[in-house]
Each structure stands twice: as C-alpha cells, then as structure tokens.
Design goal:
It is built from four helices and no strands. It is mainly α and 142 residues long. It folds into two domains: 71 residues; 39 residues. It is flat.
Amino acid sequence: MKTEWRIFLTIAGFLLFATILYGAWTAGDSGGHIEWVGTTALLLSFLLCTMCGGFFWFVSRRIDLRPEDRPDGEIADGAGEIGFFSPGSYWPFGLALAAAIAGLGLVFWQLWLVGLGLVAVVFGACGLLFEYYTGTRRTAEH
C-alpha cells in the first residue's frame, strides 16, 4: 500500500498546483473573474485523490508490508492463493441492465423509470453481494 498512497498523494499535489494556477490564470485573463467550473472540478479532483491517498496511507500503517512494498521482495513471495473469484454469475449482467434502465429514465426524464431502475440496482447489488453467502444465518436443509 506504500506505493499506492504515494501515487495518489503525488497526483493530489499536482492537482492542487493546477487548481491554483488555473484559478490565477483565468482571473488574470478575464479581468479578475475566476472561471469557477474548471476551478471547482480541479479542486474536487484534488480532494478525491487526497481522500484515496489518505485511506491507503492509513491502511498501510496497519498491515504488514506486502512483497511489492519491500525492497528485497521477490516475485515468488507473492505466489499462492489470491482469493475466490466466481466462475460464472448472471448478477453483473442484471446489475448493468438495471443501471441502464435507471440511466434511460434519466435521459428521458421519466422519474418512475429512474425509481424502477434504482430499485433494480439495489436488488442486483444485493444479489451479487449475497450470491455465495454461507454464513451461520443461512437455513440448513436436512
């Protein structure tokens, strides 16, 4: 995580510099009026990168160094099981379809279609999340 937070905070520093430069440049060209849309977009991008970099920095302090974070790390140190990946699932397709329905409702400004699409997005996200749920509350069939 050491590499990730350094990348994000470096980009955040650049965006802060670009925000100040852009605001000053537009104020100089237009007689003292700052172009707020671009300045706000750059400022929000800076804040988002700062938030991501801060999260990675916070997490990197709490976990052990990964092989890619150690200077003496070898490629073989990262070998082994990474995690469980679904061999096949229809939930991502349903989730994309639900998001498309909600987006279609936004395009044509049909609030009932937006609502239907958002309900379907929540249903699809829950289906994707609980697809392989095998916790203690799952009912066992005998």
